[in-house]
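CORE FACILITY INTAKE
Project code: CF-77B
Contact: R.S. (postdoc)
Sample description: multi-component assembly, two entities in total
Requested service: structural model of the whole complex
Turnaround: standard
Below are the sequence entries exactly as provided by the requester. Do not edit them.
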Amino acid sequence: MAKRIAVLGAGSWGTALAQIQAQTGHTVTLWDRKRDFVQEVTRTRENRKYHPGIQLSPNIRPETEIRTAVQNADFVILAIPSHAVRETLLKAYPSFSKNCVAINAAKGLDLETQETMLTVVTKAMGEAFARDRYAVLSGPSFAYEVVRGLPTAVTVAACNPKTAEQIQNACHTEPFHIYTTDDVIGVEIAGALKNVIAIVTGVVDGFKLGNNARAGLITRGLVEISRIGKALGAHPLTFSGLAGLGDLILTCTGDLSRNRRVGIKMAEGKSLRTIMKEVGQVAEGIRTTKSAYLLAKKLKVDVPILTEAYLAMYEGKSPETAIRDLLARDPQWERD
Amino acid sequence: MAKRIAVLGAGSWGTALAQIQAQTGHTVTLWDRKRDFVQEVTRTRENRKYHPGIQLSPNIRPETEIRTAVQNADFVILAIPSHAVRETLLKAYPSFSKNCVAINAAKGLDLETQETMLTVVTKAMGEAFARDRYAVLSGPSFAYEVVRGLPTAVTVAACNPKTAEQIQNACHTEPFHIYTTDDVIGVEIAGALKNVIAIVTGVVDGFKLGNNARAGLITRGLVEISRIGKALGAHPLTFSGLAGLGDLILTCTGDLSRNRRVGIKMAEGKSLRTIMKEVGQVAEGIRTTKSAYLLAKKLKVDVPILTEAYLAMYEGKSPETAIRDLLARDPQWERD
């Protein structure tokens, strides 16, 4: 049955999600805080900034008023940077219908508290909402491919498994496969922290250390992400799933990843300030590196790769020395 | 302290392992069943077939007699195709010194019984040998990079953790990191079966289904490998380790992988016979696809990707239909 979906944020990812759901037959409103941009999308039926050449489905209605956008929606998809999740949700909430479910598609941690979005949402909206009406969507999904209908598999996690299934029933389509889980924390930690490993992968690529080093780094990076997740109560196998390993592989080996480009530029000796200018779009991994480091410290979890990434980005350590120190570590038992 | 190491098999991987260990200061004999080839390597101090341009370390002594090669060796590395492990070990064993440890670097299952090399070795050499004097070396390691001293991390698994540690203590070097585990079955299953997923990845790449599809396939492929492993008693987290996920990433995304090339050619509509001629070197994944399918059937484990790979390779199903059937599967709960 056709649903009403509101997508908040008409960036690359929000637009792709709006398009794939509109093509499934759902009615989609697409809101963005940039009013001029929404008007341009309305006029041209195209998101020229992020998906030039892609004709938007007639089922998509661009919208400048956030409360109008979410009115009567069954699902509200949050496709905005993670630091804007709290504020946007609070602004839209008064117009939510009674059973409307919020689906978070943003990947990041709260900058001040290092909490995942589940905690941010719990604090803002209350426990009952977070348990029954909040889900997170994550997994290996370049927007460029989703908007073109190429096959993609993602995970939807909700504390209440019925909420996840409800989304799966409505939104799973032939090119857009939805797997479900109840491990929200695991999916959120995996989604946020993979961006840091992607940056380090970029550094390894920049120094031309080879495919072996890259695969080793991704694997050991996932071990560190998994350690942090487990300390927060996540299920260890979530990290071998689509939101963990799947997304990590994509971000670390796909040519389209912004975060990896950040690392390549670090290996060229460029400063963070210069890199942020050159990469243009937000690379969430830069902020997340700091949050991840602080979080691991708080949890007393051993994370050598995340630590070297933090030192290289925020404490002036040269990326070359950081990589050398990583490689000089003592031999380990693997499952520790 | 310098050890004596015999490497059996002077192919791409055996030669790379010989070189990296010889450069660490160990004394290495390098045996191969092709006598002419060994004589050429002796004369040229180069393995022109697999590593042209790489000058072999003076610590490597090529050897035509297998028993001479293994005499007094502390470690015997088996760098031969998996179907030759049993015979080679039985041939060399009479000259093994008392505490000599066999390190298997071959990835594959016994064709007739679908057993891993641990069982093959247990049957041939007895339980005591398999427990204390057998180890398997696996992980993301293109020989091309190892022979050039690029950083690489691998896993060494032995039923007796002390055996694995003994190898780690002797063979771990700055560019060649060795992690240890006691999950031999897990490491062997992961190493063998990843070749099948690599072939399917090649098919997905050949049909230009995109990075999302590839990352999703790798992730779900690892779930299937892990299901088979668990049914055989392996530790689930082994599959997130270097021999599992690490090697899978490398084989599925690295441009150098033979098995992936097989899949790309399948997508072009070529027959297995033609492909085997074109790819030249042995692609273990072709044989392993059949073994993996039979093994999963025997264990009653659900493996949709491995099954479609088998049908496309051995039962005349078109790769296009196989991929379409995979994509049309019903939605799932992720951790099942």
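Facility notes:
- Chain B touches chain A through 63 residues (CB under 8 Å).
- Residues 74 and 99 of chain B are 7 Å apart (CA to CA).
Invoice: internal transfer
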